[in-house]
Amino acid sequence: MSSDRTNLAIFGRRLPNLNIADHWGLGVQLITVSAPLGMVVGVAIAGYDYVVNSLLWENLAEHLPPVLLCLMPIVAMMLTWAIIKVGKVIYTSMADEVVRAYHSPNQGIDYRRAGAKLAASVATMGFGGSAGMEGASKWLGAVIGGGVQAGINRVGRIRLLHAKQEITMLAGAAAGIGAIFRAPLTGAIMGIESPYKHDLAHEALLHGLVASATSFFTFTAIGSATPYFPIKVSYILTWRDLLVCIPLGLAAGLASHVFLGLLAKIKSHVKNSNYPSYLHYLFGGVILSLLALLTFWLSGEPLTLQAGLPVARSLLYGNYPLTICLAIFVTKIIATAVTFGCGGVGGLFVPSATIGAALGSVFDIFFPTSQPGLFTMVGVAAFTGASYNSLLFAAVFVAEATGSPAMVVPGLVASCVAFVTSAGVSNSAHQQHRR
Question: What is the pTM of this model?
Fold first, then answer.
């Protein structure tokens, strides 16, 4: 055959200009790069999850009395400051650094300070800062993916495996999310949706799907295979529930403005302040500890510590009265804004999911259904969708996280309303409008 491009007849229909070489090369890349990359990322995320949650936080929660546990955020923030100072970390954001590296490949990820940044995230989350594993997992997967592709591109003999570094970086990011959430489709969608507000990085979709799938398989083989939000109810949709999703989406969109506005204000104040940086971290730690003590006094539990996944699950199961749901909603917004505004390192998604769950649980109380927790999960989709300027991954996440596909529909309704209400305000400084 003199050319890679040829006309093929399939079932009597001719397919003009099918580039067999390109498709063959893509298949080879998926099998030899994306699939193994996902496995490596899955192992890395499993180890990272063990250190942060099992080795540090669970031990602290088990052995410390609640009052002392409430003081751990001070330790978290001061340790984070020390690591950032010694490691000379300039850019503390994790998920947003991936977005920045995608749009500015020449600038890329700061690999020289990656170890210090990873350690800082362990300190923030492992000692109770209001930060989640998603941002760090996305960043760690991107670091591995970008590094692997950079190494491959330097070897001239394997030109078939050469590719744009930012595509493999996004595949690694998708693998990190798919592993930590135990949700491979969510990982792939979040990976390609995060660089834009009204567009997709579609060239990385196949790579992200393969890497996320193998990462999910590897992570669940090593660690936990339990869904993020295990439920025993199969949701059945009704028109009444879908109608309630509209004001819930509106409330979530407005709440995201409050949350992101507070976060931006704290960051601006810290940036323009003349005080030494350690005082900002110390002040943030003290505020986080006071918020934890307040919720402990109100409910008997320090509800604002760490990412808040156990709290979100308790909200889903209807374990809190209205006053506590509202307290969680307000205090978690403040705690998360303070954590990241004062320099904490980690992810915003799970704390945002906890905020959304608290808002949704209020709707569950006022608009009870035959399916408890429905609006709690819709609140998760709506608030995270608004904060991340996402229409897709938040709704898909609640379906995968609960194992209930019907959740996609109310999740999409609320996410669309929240997305429009958010008016393009995002927690990612480098997220672009579209291509």
Answer: 0.89
